Structures are given as structure tokens and as C-alpha cells.
Amino acid sequence: MLLFVLIAIFGPWLSPYGPTQMIVADARQGPSWSHWFGTDLLGRDVFSRIIHGARSILSLTGLGALLAVIAGTTIGLASGYWGGLPDEIIMRVFDSLLAIPALLLALVLLGAVGRSQGSVLIVIAVVYVPVVARVVRSEVLAVKSLGYIEAARLRGEHLAYMLFREILPSVLPALSVEAALRFSYGIFLVASLGYLGVGVQPPTPDWGLMVKEARGTVGLTPWALYFPAGAISLLVIGLNLAADGLKSALQSASQSLSPRERARIQEARRNGAAQSALGNEGPPVGQAAMLTVRNLTAAYRVKGQWADALRDVSLEIRAGETLGVVGESGSGKSTLALAIVQYLSSNGAVRSGTLLFGGESILGQSRRALRTLRRETIALIPQDPMASLNPSIRVGEQIAEVLRLGPRSRGEEVDHRVIELVSRVRISDPSRVVRQLPHQLSGGMQQRIVIAMALAANPKLLILDEPTTGLDVTTEAAILDLVGELLSEKTRSALYISHDLGVVARVSDRIAVLYAGELLEMGPVSQVFQASEHPYTVGLLASIPRFSNQTKIGELPSMAGSTPSPTQLPEGCVFRPRCPMATPLCLERPELVSSQPEHDVRCHHRQRVATLRHTLFAATQPQSDAADQVTDHAILDLRDLEMRFPIRRSLRQIISGDSKKSVHAVNGVSLSIRSATTLGIVGESGSGKTTLVRSILGLSPHVGGRLLIEGKDVPAALAKRQRSLLGQVQAVSQNPDQALNPHLSIGASLRRQILRLTPTSRHKIRSSIDELLTQVGLTPDYASRFPPQLSGGEKQRVAIARAIASESSLLLCDEATSSLDVSIQARILNLLARVQHDMGRATLFITHDLAVVAHVADEIGVMYLGKLVETGSRRQVLEPPYHPYTEALLSAYPSIDGRDQYEAIRLSGEVPSPVDLPTGCPFHSRCPRLIGPICESLAPVWQMSESGHAVACHIPRDELAMIQTMRVGYLGSNAEDGA
Amino acid sequence: MGRFALRRLGFLFLTLLLTSIIIFSVTQFLPGDVARILLPRDASEEAIAAKREDLGLNRSALVQYGSWIKGFIVGDWGTSFAWDIPVRPRVIEGLINSLMLAAVALVLAIPLSIGLGVWAGLAEGRWPDHLISLISLSLVGLPEFVTGVLLIEWLAQRLRWLPAISSIEPGSSFVEALPFLILPALTATFVLLAYLVRLTRAEVIEQLNRPYVRTAVLKGLSWPTVVFRHVLRNALLPTITVLAISMGWLIGGLIVIENVFNYPGLGRLLLSAIDHRDFPLIQAIAMIIVLGVVLANFAADLLYALLNPRIRYD
To answer: How close is the nearest chain B Cα to the Cα of A99, in Å?
Structure first.
């Protein structure tokens, strides 16, 4: 590529002859020393003409493509950012232009404006503007809703800054690929036009024209044809390679392996298999063991290095037993599952160790034997059921596939078995469901189908890898009931993997704790939870927020640091850098030691861990309720707030006058938050809680009701709010990876926030940034780092720093800790609590996680289908009387303390559509305590207690309290249970 | 489904309306005074004025467009400036010839490129993939006129397997025309191949990495079953859309190819119309080509919706 550009620039000095200089005597000469590429029929030097042609074609296409890129980018940015009608019109016109093939459009244009270099230039620009604009626009749309763009809107950035500083850098990678592609197509187009004789006119040297001229005389001067043709090909191939290179550099994740790496991985797999087979002849395996994993080391080949995701892991699962595996991200828990089913990704291998199933090595099996093993004995139930099902095959057929592989696989029998399996996983209308496609089912139903599929071949071992992650808590509870029931039959063994200790506790007999690829502790559930002997397990348990309706707990005990990556492991014990008990002894790697039978721990100090346990749990000092600092000064006041999204109607609906439908996301929410208090709102997906936050922020302007901040009415749309108001309301969003602009340093992001929202002199900014970073527990040197270099927890700290930079009086947290690991979550929750406490901010904390809300909130609101159904102080909401929905939520929550303590209340059906809202009580269609037609016809009014607890239900408070307290204990004070 | 088709049909007409405006404006107003172009250089001002009146150029732009589009719809496509004959029969004749060529090219290109693309995708990173990717990459770098000229030089001139010039007689049947069609169709195939192979390969690789493939493998299905029942079904769906998009590509290629082979299709006719600045002819050809592209897109949308049960009709 570079060569061509250089030739184009310096060509005239290189070329031995003028491009049109004719030396009649030398005509029709083959390649020689005086004419490297020979001469054409007229005696012109082909080499010189190619060089001059390069100059003409590169400058023409280069300029044309540049014009197209500039114009297209500007239009795409503006159109995509603004959206609405202008965007619609521009894109329609561009779509129409794109319906005209490029060459046709070019020909028609050239036919109209005449043939000259100038018109070719214009033509290229015109032809490619729509393409570039489309690409840029779609990139803008993808970026527009990301957290950092919204953060910029929340500080009221002006348009030019938004487009060119915040959005353009994110669009640039895709744009550069597109520019390279346009350039190469442009070369094609110009050469084709030249060949057709409508582009550059003779005698100007042009590659296409040269091919045309040489064509008639191929027999006499073949070189005059081959050399320019070769020049075009080389240039276009070079450009395409450049575009491909750019593209794959952008998607670095999917780097394909070099043959050498591939061979190395194959060799490692063979070695591992050989070892595993040897293990078979080793010491006899316990009779009852179904699956034996001994000294397993599994690794991924990353950048020419082995990264051991699992090291030296040994465990076994007995017949009929369920082993739970808990671990945070980076613990290697999924690698364990995939190693057992022999489905590590293409760069992964079991490097050493033994994997035995029923005494036979799983590794190194023949393809046929492996298929039999997968079909008949081991089944995997993965996370994300939607992705695990084939989107275009009916679910019944996907189950039937498994059955047809087995014996007795005739048509009717198979159909019959499928229905049987589907009813087995508690799907009420099996014959209808089997005919549906995965996307027509809800997440919970999809996971039931996946479970039915796993059960189809009646496997001896089930591996469940986070099967309920991503599901709502009520759905999760129902799936867990089903899984628990299946496992309690004790007819098959199971490995249950999860990050959620509560979930694992509910279904497992024994628990293994994985950390950074190593097994740190393993034992019966009660042992591991109540008498854990590893500092990591203790720290993990302590950092889980718990219910306590009595008192609010202060800071959660938390572990410093984060999980090390497998390529940068600490010396000795993997947990040493984060361990509060570490001593020099820990520089030596501890062995997994079994003290009492059944309880294995990998720690030098296991005897002393009991003390740590006591100090950690004692540290969870109850904090006095915020009552003492609370004033009646309301920071935020919502009165009957409503938010609806219009649904686009089809042409026919508009014509037939169908009433305008919309999604009722928020349906009349009234609440207020006083200074220095936290209101927690809990709800499942579809409850409208995120829309509520966005309405308060002005990102999704409300359409009804009033929004008051510090007693003053606030305009619904962000654009209409004054800058001082913007500074008062700030937010921390869910996804830390999207919260910060990856192209701006941490310092730059914070600087902008301070500059826009607080009157600060420029020379003091530096110290303000340092101060902010220190406040959120980072060091000032973070200012020069970029977001991709930070961990999730660190990014969330920066996002908090940004939100408090303007000394806001109201902080909105939308699932601010949901995507973080438990141990990181604890520290972010502590930070938020401190930030609030220090500055007396009012906080609105939105989450799906009951324990988190119970931990952070002074007051709690429970939201369902766009409405609040219960509000009150934390204590009031967490103890009876509950709204029936709150009751179901509490009962569904997989707590690590209250195992089997409550009557299981499970909701049936799905959340109704927010388009056609149910009449009466929004919860009536799923309510387990439905009392009669009144629930369906009349919306309940708030029942208030004297102390301010409010429940929106037709059942009288006293009656609710009575039926609910009659059950085996309610969520009592469990704060001491862990100790 | 019905509503979806109606919506698509609406878009189709909107696109046709907008493109016809674009084509008409470009060819009617950009060139300057059409009357002056038509008449000899030394024509008197009166003659020019008379010609303008004759052609209706004094009317407002909107009226001119209106009468043109009305004429186009009812089948009156005007009279050629250059040959002074009705445009329509010439265009239809060229269209039929071009369609024959396109059909042969598609019949060759689609199975071949899908086959090669799937093979390369399944063998990602191994030699078949490298070989196929190398071939498609070199084809990307070869413009139609180079491929065409080289094919003529080797297959026709040197080896004498096929006729070099595709001068089919008017009214000859498809079978009679076939030998003349092979070389140009082969050239067009190469153009499509490069593009389609790469896209098919990428789609297959993408689908292979989806979790549902893992589910299928872990069910214990054999690899061929996984590929044919699970992967290809999802991987080949987008190819339908790609095919529609590549129609524009193919047509651009055909314009060049017809000129390389002197094949009497729309492309050759278009070029000679441009040479003579024969605007009624240019307009008619451009409209027919656009109509073809838009209809192909419409058909692909419907087919995609029929085959893909997951499409949301909104």
C-alpha cells in the first residue's frame, strides 16, 4: 500500500519517460532494461504510464473518498444523534440512492455532466456519501444510549462537544474500516469508468484506459495489458487486506490461532489425556464416586502463553449427590464445567490431571465414545437459555432430537416422551409449548425446556452452570424449586455452579469454593457456611448483604483488592495479597488438607480462621437508623409521575383510526426523599424502575404528574433544565463498562464534569480531581489512566466520583452494583453509604436485589408494573403486613440464612403487558392471595398505618398481618446467624 | 405477515418515487440545455427555441417530471434522441438479454460461493480455509474488465473453447444463446464469488461460536447433523439478504461485462446512450435497472420473513 502511495507522490521523478511521450522506434517492445514493462503500440513506456496512472487514480479516488467520508460522517453523526423526522427523511433519500447501483449512478451522472477528472471526483463523492453516512449513523445509534454519552448529556454538554469529543472517537474505528473499503471500491469504479471510456479521457494515463487500449493488441503487446491489470489488482487487494486487518484488530477477541499454536494446544491435550488415562490405573477410586477430578489443571493459550484457569483442582461427586461450586468471576468455575464435558474453547486444553467418570477417563476418548458419553451420561444446563436453544427449530423438535439417538425411537413414542418431559418440568400446556420457537417463550420457560432436554437421555450426571442467572427472582425461585425437586430424587449426581451462595446453599449437599482457579475449601453446606475455615470463604460470606428488619447494618466487612488474573498470580497462596491473616508462611503454597473428614481447606492458618470469623461478623455493627440526622426537608418529590412510550403504529392502524397505544412504563408514582436518606426501590424486570430513574434525570421525560426537586417544579425534558439543576441531580448506572468514555482519560472525564457543573477556577481543578479520586478510594495517579485499564469495581468508583463531583443533592443509583462480584459489591455499597453519610445526600437506589435494598435503604418502595405497591421504612416493609407481591419476593429470595424457613410462595403466569394494563389491581393476575372480583375491577387505595407504612391492597392490614405472621417465622433477625 | 408485506410494498413505492426523481433531475436538468445538445452547433436561436417548445422544456420542472413519470407508467417511454425510434422495444430487448446473462451467472455463482464459503467457514484456520480465502481475495482484486479480457484471451483466443464475442442474434432462443453466455456469465460469477464466499464464511464462523451449537454437540449429535440441521439453517438465512444486496453489485458488473464482450444487453445499450447523450434512453434504462434492484430487495425481504420465523413484523 505504502509503495503505491510513494509511487504516486514521487512517481514523476521515477518514471524514465513522459507518460505520453511516444518513441515510435521503440513501439511494441517487450520488457527490457530501457523499458521495464515494455512499450505499447504507440511506443509509450508502460512503466511510466503506470506510475503516472497511479498518481491520477490514487489522487482522484483518494480525494473523492475523503470528500465522501467527511460529508458522510457529518451527516451520519447529526442525523443519528438527533433522530426524529429529519433523520427519517435523510435515510429514506439515502436508501433510494443506494438502490441505484453505484456504477449506474456514476454513469448517469457522468452522462449528464460530461467527462472530466473533476466530474469523476464529484461522482465518487456523491456515490459514496450515503454509504458512509449509513455506517456512521448506525454506529452513532449504537453508542448513543451508552452510559458515558448519557452522562455527558446529564452535565449539559453542547452539541459540538458531544458529536466530536464524545461520539466521534467511538465511531472512528468502524469509520476507518469503511474508508478503506470505500477507497478500494473507488479504485474499482474509476478503473471501470476508464475502461468504459467515460472517465478520464485519453491520452491521460489511466489504468482502466490502458487495459482497454491494450486489449485489441494482446497478441502483439501482452505486457501492455498484464502490467496495468496487475497494478489494479495489487492495489485493491492491498486495500482489502488493510480493511480486513483493521476489522480484525477491532475484534481482537476472535483472533484465530496460528498453526503452531494450534499444534501446541493439540499436544497439550494429548499429554493431558495420557495423564488422565494413567490416573485410571492409580490408587483405586472410592466405589461411590461418579465423577472424580484429580489434580486438574486446565488452561487457555493467550498471546503465546498458557494461562491456567484451573490449577490442581481435585474433587469428587458421589452417586446421587449434588456438589455446589461457588466462585466469583475469574474463579474458573465455568472452565471446570466445560472441561468435564470436553468442550473447552479452541484455545483451551486440560494440561494435566485426571478426569474420571465411573472409573473411566473422560479425556482422550475417541470421538464416538465421547458422543456416547455426552448423549447418555452427562448433560449440561448452561446459563442464558435463549442462546442455548437453536432459534429456528421448534423446542419440541429440539428435545426429540435427543430421544431419536436413543433406543426405541419411533415417531409416536418420541412425541409422547417429549410431552412427558415437558410436563415433567412443570410446563402446564405442553402440547402447545412444544410447537413454539424459543423466542416465543419467556426466559423461565426457555430454561425449563433446556432442563427437559438435559433430562431426555436420563443422564447420570447433570452439570448446571449458573442456570438461573439473569432470571427474575420469582422466576429463579420457581426454577430452583424444580431443580431442587429433580436433585432430591437422588437418582443422579449433579454439579451446581453459581456465583450466588444463596442459590448454591439451597440445592447442594456439599460445597466447593473456587478462587482464582484453585479450590480453597470444600465440605458439607453447613460446615462451609457456619464454620468456614478459609479466610476467603469467611470474607465472601461476610460481604453478602443480609436481611435484617431490626436494625440497619453499617459497613459490610469487605476484602481489599480483586481476583488476580491467571497470568499474574501471586507467589504462594493465591489469596495472600487480599488476606487479612497473611504471614510470611503464606509465601509457600498451602496444600488442601482435610482435618475432619469431609472438610478440606487450603490454608496455613485454618485454626485461626474462627477468630477472623468472629471479628468480621462482630464488625457488622448495627448502625443507628438515620433518624437523628433526618430533617423533613424533601429533596425529591414525585406526584403521580407518569411516563409512557408511544408505540409506532402501522400505516393501517393510522388509517383505521386505531387508538394510539403506548407502553405504560410508569403509572402514577408518588414518593419523596428527604435529605440524608436513601430510598430503595425494588422490583423485577418490567416494573418500570429504570424508567422512573430516567424520568427523574430527564432522559425519558415524564408525560404526566409533577417532579419537584427542592420544592421546585422541574421541566420534564433535560434540554429545558438549567445547568445549576443538572449539577444537583446525578446518577450512577448499572454497567461500569459503559459508564466511562474509553477514549478519554479518567482525569479528562472528571475535569469536564467539574468544569461544566461547578464554578471552579482552572488551576484548582487538578486538586479537585485528586480529592475526588481519594474520596472514592482511588489514588490520584488514576487520573492519567484510561477506562479499559481499570477493573469493573474501579470503573464504578470513577463513575461515583463523577456523580459527586458537582456536590449534587440527589444521587440516583440504577442497579449500581448488580454487575459486580459480591466482594466488590460490598466495597462499592460501603463507598456509597459513606458518600451519602458525609454529604447528607438524598439517594434513590434502584435494584432487583432484595438484600441490597435491605442493606442500603432507610425507606423501601416495592414496584410492580409501573406502580408502587408498598412503601415504608425498611423495617416496616420487611416485616408483616406485606403486600402479597412483597411477600412473594421475600419468599423467593435465595437467602443463605433462612434455608427452608418460609412457606414457598410462587407466582404463576407472566408479568402482564404494559401496553394493555390490567384493570383493578395491577397484581391481580398473579396474586396468590386474590380475594375476589374486587381485585379485578377496582384499583386498591393505599392503606396507611399511623407510622407511615402504606400498602396498596384490598385485604385489610390486620388480616394481612395475621395470615402472614402465622407462617413459620417471617424474616426475623438473622444478623447473628453467620457468626 | 400480510401487514409486513404491505409495509415493504409501501417502502418499495417510496423508493421508486425517490429514485425516479433523482434520475429524472440528474438527466433532465443537470446537462444544461437539452435542445442545444440535440441540434447541430450552428442551429439558430429560433430553431433552439422551437425545439425547446417541442420537447416541453419550457414547462415547470414538476410538470415535466409528472408527464415523464406518467408516460413511464403507461408504457410510453419516449423517443430516442439518437435513433429517433421508440425507446421501449430496444430497452425490453436489452433487458431480456441481460436477464438471461444474470440468470446464468446466478445459477453458477450461488451454489458455488455458498459451497465454498461454508467449507471455508467449517475449516476455519486450516488449509481449505486458507486456500479458499486466498482465491476469493485475489478475485476481489480483479475488476470485471480484467477478468473478462483475460478469459477471452485464454479460453477463446488461445484455447478456442468458446466464442470470444457474444453477438447473439435478436430473437434467438436461450439454448442457441447459451454458448455465447458462458464466458460473460463466468466473468460475472467471479465478481459475485469473491463477495459471497467471504460473507458466507464469516456467517458460518459466527454461528459456530453460538451457544446453541454447544448444546447440539453436547446432546451427542454427530458433527454432520450439527452442521446441517443446526448451523446451516441459521447461517444461510442472512445470505438471502446478501444476495439481494449483491444484485446491485451484479448489475454494475454486468454493465462492464456486456461492454467487454460486446453483449447486446442493457449495459451496452446504456453506454451507447451515454455516448450519444440520448437522455430518454438513459432515463428508461436507469429506471428499469432500479426497478429490478428494488424488486429483488422486496422479494428477498419477503423470502427472509417467510423463512425466518423470528422476524418481528415492525
So the answer is: 6
Per-residue pLDDT, A390:
92
**Interchain pair B314, A648: CB under 8 A:** yes
Please give the CATH architecture assigned to the domain spanning B87-273+306-313: Orthogonal Bundle (1.10)
Q: How far is A566 from chain B (nearest CA, A)?
A: 24
- Identify from A61, A103, A116, A469 which residue to disrupt to test chain B contact, counting B C-beta atoms within 10 A and taking the largest count: A103
pTM of the model: 0.84
Give the Cβ contact number of residue B279 at 10 Å. 26
What 3-state class would DSSP assign to A249?
Answer: helix
Least trusted range by pLDDT, from A32-46, A776-790, A964-978: A964-978
Q: How many CB atoms lie within 10 A of CB B158?
A: 11
B298 close contact with A: CB closer than 8 A: no
What is the CB-side half-sphere exposure of residue A226 using CA atoms within 13 A? 12
Would you say B254 and B265 are in contact if contact means Cβ atoms under 8 Å apart?
yes
Q: Average pLDDT over chain B, rounded to whole?
A: 83
In residues, how long is chain B?
A: 314
Q: Do B140 and A99 touch (CB under 8 A)?
A: no
pLDDT tens per residue, range B157-169: 777 777 766 666 6
Which residue from B216, B260, B289 is facing A104, i.e. has the nearest CB? B289
Residues of B numbered 267-296 whose beta carbons fall under 8 angstroms of chain A's beta carbons: which are they?
270-271, 273-274, 277, 282, 286, 289-290, 293-294
Q: Which long-range contacts (CB under 8 A, 24 or more apart) does A19-28 make?
A: A19/A44, A19/A48, A19/A49, A19/A51, A19/A52, A19/A53, A19/A204, A19/A205, A20/A44, A20/A203, A20/A205, A21/A45, A21/A48, A28/A220, A28/A221
Q: How far separated are the first and last CA of chain A, in Å rounded?
A: 69
Enumerate the residues of chain A whose CB falls inside 8 A of the CB of residue B156. none
Q: Does B310 touch chain A (CB under 8 A)?
A: yes
Residue linked to cell 421508440: B86
Out of B149, B251, B314, whose CB is closest to A104? B251
Judge: A198–B271 Cβ closer than 8 Å, yes or no: yes
Q: Do B18 and A92 touch (CB under 8 A)?
A: yes
State yes or no: pLDDT of A506 exceeds 60.
yes
Residue A191 sits at the vertex; the CA angle it makes with A186 and A194, to the nearest 5 degrees, is 130
Measured in degrees and rounded to the nearest 5, phi and psi for residue B53 equal -60, -40
B117 or A262: whose pLDDT is higher?
Answer: B117
CA distance A153 to A721: 11
Helix %, strand %, coil % of chain A (to 5): 50, 15, 35
Calpha distance A868→A681 (Å, rounded): 9
Residue B279 has pLDDT above 90, yes or no: no
Confidence class for position A601, pLDDT limits 50, 70, 90: very high
Q: How far off is chain B from A375, nearest CA to CA, in Å? A: 4
8 Å CB contact of B219 and A405: yes
Beta bridge partners of A552: A623
The complex scores an ipTM of 0.89
Helices (H) and strands (E) counted in chain A, each on its own, are: 36, 26
Look at residue A760 in the predicted model and tell me its pLDDT. 75
